[in-house]
Specification:
single chain, 15 helices, Hypothetical protein af1432, two-stranded antiparallel ribbon, 2 domains, mainly alpha
Length: 358
């Protein structure tokens, strides 16, 4: 960081300590890639398989070696010297992301960390986990540890999403160049706001949140040339695309757990329509579970306000009008009313395209 000189901050004393001014032993002239975070993101004495560096005179120097190397003394020293950013090697980014997942609740509830920075942590953790889940592309069910991690992510996020201004901060981070991974996080964020208006208990919101995050899981097995086609899909391609609902249900699998039953139901049902014109079964009205009807509205809103390969992004007002026009046809009228109330309160104002279509 600007102005920090070698020798200014040391990592502590005693056996095994390392001076912050000491260059990395493995090729000190090598330009290593890193990313910066706030020291407030690190909880002393917690296990993280990554090391913490300072940038001194444009060089990375080791400050705390992981795991368990970052102590209260390290944090206090950074605070005393006004150091507000530390660095993690890009090569250790996955380890850091897993650490964030494991400590997401405490991080998001830490009022000392600026809301915008906590929003970035939530969005990054969500995106990383969803991408990893999609990339598994397992032929059968997703491994149980993935479900547990996603469940923990949802559980750790709910209290944060209830905080005033948090959703607005999150939506400002949404990348409107469409990727399935980003879309799943966006739908979860919007659905969480809608679920809140229905007064669901925390247990139910965790169940529904998992389903919202995994609703498009089946697209991981749809050919990329169909997913990213710049023009309209032909009839055969459309039939392939429609199979992502049943594929998602198959990937999640048939479980006795109510949590996973809910996730599977949302994956299977989020393209059903109120008037019975949807797929895969053509269910209508209250035959479609409420959680799926909520995710449907969140899904369509994000799709409309996002740059897609075949269309530019719509602004939020235009997308809301389209959803209102589908009231009693494509969408549950009560869910549309709840969605409209959120929009009128300004909750969704920042969800709009950030980048023009190319």
């Amino acid at each position: 960081m600007p102005g920090l000189k070698a020798g200014t901050v040391s990592s502590g004393s005693g056996a095994g300590s390392t001076s912050a001014a000491e260059p990395m032993a493995d090729s000190p002239n090598q330009e290593l890639e890193s990313f910066e975070i706030s020291p407030l993101m690190l909880f002393p004495e917690t296990s993280g398989w990554f090391s913490v560096y300072l940038k001194v005179d444009d060089r990375l120097v080791l400050y705390a070696k992981g795991p368990d190397g970052f102590t209260n003394e390290h944090r206090h020293r950074l605070h005393d010297f006004g150091v507000d950013k530390v660095h993690i090697l890009t090569a250790q980014k996955r380890n850091y992301q897993r650490y964030v997942e494991d400590n997401l609740g405490p991080i998001l509830d830490n009022e000392k960390v600026p809301l915008k920075e906590r929003a970035e942590v939530f969005y990054s953790a969500s995106l990383s986990l969803i991408q990893e889940t999609f990339e598994e592309k397992l032929p059968g069910s997703i491994q149980s540890d993935h479900f547990q991690r996603i469940k923990d992510l949802v559980q750790g996020s709910l209290s944060f999403l209830r905080k005033g201004g948090s959703l607005k901060a999150l939506t400002g981070l949404i990348n409107h160049d469409y990727y399935t991974y980003n879309h799943c996080v966006n739908v979860f964020t919007i659905a969480a706001a809608l679920l809140e208006t229905y007064g669901y208990k925390r247990r139910e919101m965790i169940d529904f949140g998992l389903g919202a995050i995994l609703h498009d899981l089946g697209k991981s097995l749809i050919p990329k040339e169909i997913i990213n086609k710049p023009g309209k899909l032909d009839a055969d391609e459309w039939e392939v695309m429609k199979t992502h609902t049943t594929i998602g249900g198959l990937i999640i699998g048939d479980h006795s757990s109510e949590l996973l039953q809910t996730a599977r139901m949302i994956a299977l049902s989020h393209h059903e329509r109120w008037d019975g014109t949807g797929y895969p079964w053509g269910k209508k009205g209250e035959e479609i579970p409420l959680a799926a009807r909520i995710v449907t509205v969140a899904d369509v809103f994000d799709a409309l306000t996002t740059v897609r390969p075949y269309k530019p992004a719509w602004d939020a007002d235009k997308a809301v009008k389209e959803i209102v026009a589908g009231r009693d046809k494509a969408f549950d009228p009560a869910v549309v009313d709840a969605f409209l109330a959120l929009h009128e309160k300004g909750v969704l104002d920042d969800i709009r395209a950030k980048y023009p279509a190319e």
